[in-house]
Amino acid sequence: MNFSLPIESERWKIKPQRFDWKSIGYQFSWTRYGTEENGYSSVFGLGIGFLTGNLEDNIDMKGLDFNIKVGLGMAPISNNLIIAFHFICGLDLKVVEGDISVQTDARHTYKFTHGSAYIDAFFGGDLIIGYHIFESLGIISGVDITTNAYGIGAYYTDLEQKSKVYKMSYLFTGVNITPHIGLFFLF
User: How far is CA 84 from CA 1, 72, 74, 119, 132, in A?
Assistant: First the structure.
């Protein structure tokens, strides 16, 4: 089990405009690391978390984050101390929503709801450092550094009785830095 702190940024393209989205999340994940005697290493992970962020620094949104990652690499040191690095890729599904209020005059305040559901493919690398505390238990930490290769989804705005949905996409935008720490068990 790992606890991760994803720090992400993207530039969403909604119609002809581009919007900056920055978020930070809190995520728990199950990750399977495998190391062979010849030094090859693999990683497979599933994660679920909560994220909060802002769009263009004025719309606060929060929601859920689901992801899957796979990777191959090397573990040049693999005894009580483990050092490994991997090329990773994966998919990330996010659903976020937020409200803003706009006051037009002293009597009228309008509530706007903004939200998005999107999926993106990412790739990058990770560095893992671990240590065996007991024969079958250890501590592991690391950092994933990735970029969003391609993302697609829907962005919507809702003003009381009126709703609009827009197609959203982005290509090779943003940098994601995800430090993580956890316990590992040997089976």
Answer: 17, 10, 6, 28, 14
pTM for the model stands at 0.83
Q: Name the nearest CA neighbour of 25 among 55, 56, 46, 4.
A: 4
- 8 Å CB contact between 73 and 84: yes
Counting Cβ atoms within 10 Å, is residue 69 exposed (0-12), middle (13-18) or buried (19+)?
Answer: buried
Closest-CA residue to 138 (of 26, 33, 29, 5) = 33
Segment 131-166, tens digit of pLDDT? 988 878 889 999 999 998 998 999 888 876 778 888
Q: How many CB atoms lie within 10 A of CB 89?
A: 17
pLDDT per residue over 76-110, tens digit each? 888 889 899 999 999 999 999 988 877 777 777 77
Per the CB < 8 A criterion, the answer to whether 114 and 55 are in contact is yes
